[in-house]
Amino acid sequence: MRAWILPMLLMLCGSTVAAGLISADSGGAATAVLLVFLVLAGVNSPLVFPRSIGALEAQRRSAVDGRPVVYWRPGCTYCMRLRIRLGRSARRLHWVDIWRDPAGAAAVRAVNDGDETVPTVVVAGRPHTNPDPEWVREQLSSSA
């Protein structure tokens, strides 16, 4: 539920502003504002990211197939940048939502001096905090 707070707030704010614009006879502006807020809500929702799995399962799968593990959280702009820049190849990574998985949050804190800094990408057992998306893509192609 925590992952949906920001998207729901964005939809509520957009609806409120649009209702105010409609009452002021600005239907076109209301539509544009509502559309912008809906897009922002969608981009910040968990729907944009591949399905998250638990940290232990992600580590197990990564040990088997060599693919990187990405620790992320909803609403993180750097996580969004990584996800968007990876494009379709993002589905080949193992994604762990640290807000849903306490073990994932603990793993991130362990490698980031107690901070939950995301995205943290673990490649071959080595953590990399907020790496360049192109570097992550190279790591993914070398693990295939």
UniProtKB/TrEMBL annotation:
GO molecular-function terms, A-Z: electron transfer activity
Residues of the signal peptide: 1-18
Residues annotated as transmembrane: 28-49
Keywords recorded for this protein, A-Z: Membrane, Signal, Transmembrane, Transmembrane helix
Keyword Signal annotated: yes
Gene3D superfamilies per UniProt: Glutaredoxin
Source organism superkingdom: Bacteria
InterPro entries in the cross-refs: Glutaredoxin (IPR002109), Grx-like_ET (IPR051548), Thioredoxin-like_sf (IPR036249)
Biological process annotations from GO: cell redox homeostasis
Coiled coil, from the record: none
Keyword Transmembrane helix tagged: yes
Domain Glutaredoxin: 69-126
Name listed for the protein in its UniProt record: Glutaredoxin domain-containing protein
Organism: Streptomyces afghaniensis 772
